[in-house]
Structures are given as C-alpha cells and as structure tokens.
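INFO batch 0412 | record 1 of 1 | parsing
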Amino acid sequence: MMETPVQLSLQQPKLIPRLREALRVRHYSLKTEKAYIHWVRRFIFHHEVRHPKDMGANEVAAFLSHLAQQRRVAASTQNQALAALLFAMKTASAWTPLDFLNC
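INFO prediction complete | emitting tokens
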C-alpha cells in the first residue's frame, strides 16, 4: 500500500488559529478566548472583510466609535474589544502595535 506524501505549506496559519494558539499558550480562559475571537471577527466584518494587516489606528478608532454610538455598548465592553484587538496585534502578529493617542 502506498502512502500519500505530506505536503508542507510555507504559508503562515490564518489569523484566528494564530490568535487561538497565542491565547492558549498564555493559559487564558476559554471564555476570554471566545470573547477575543468574537471581537476580532466583528472588527474584520465591520470593515467589510478587509485583512487586519491593511488596517490601522483609524479603523480601530472607527470600530470603537461604532460600538459606542450605534451599538450603544457599555464602556467596559469597548474596553474588552480594545483589549482583544491589542492582544491580536501584539501576539498574532497580524498588525504592528498602534499609537492610539494619535488617532
């Protein structure tokens, strides 16, 4: 019986699996993992499925403003969304860290 050869991919894993792995390596709780992935996905879909590496501080600020003004979420919810995006930027290497004070 012949075995099929294993093909190695030179591509990086996609963003969500990288984010999930980074959260698990750091022993974040399952609820935190689900919440962070939820916020990163909402951010991506809010900006019409653009890749996060093509977005920056202005897009993050627009997303947080959308949450506050149109969705009327609490400040703690906005903080959680921001924390999720910052974590994704720093650990999943999807983006470079942003200077939010200059938005």
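INFO post-check: Residues 15-94 form a domain with the DNA polymerase; domain 1 fold (CATH 1.10.150.130).
INFO record closed
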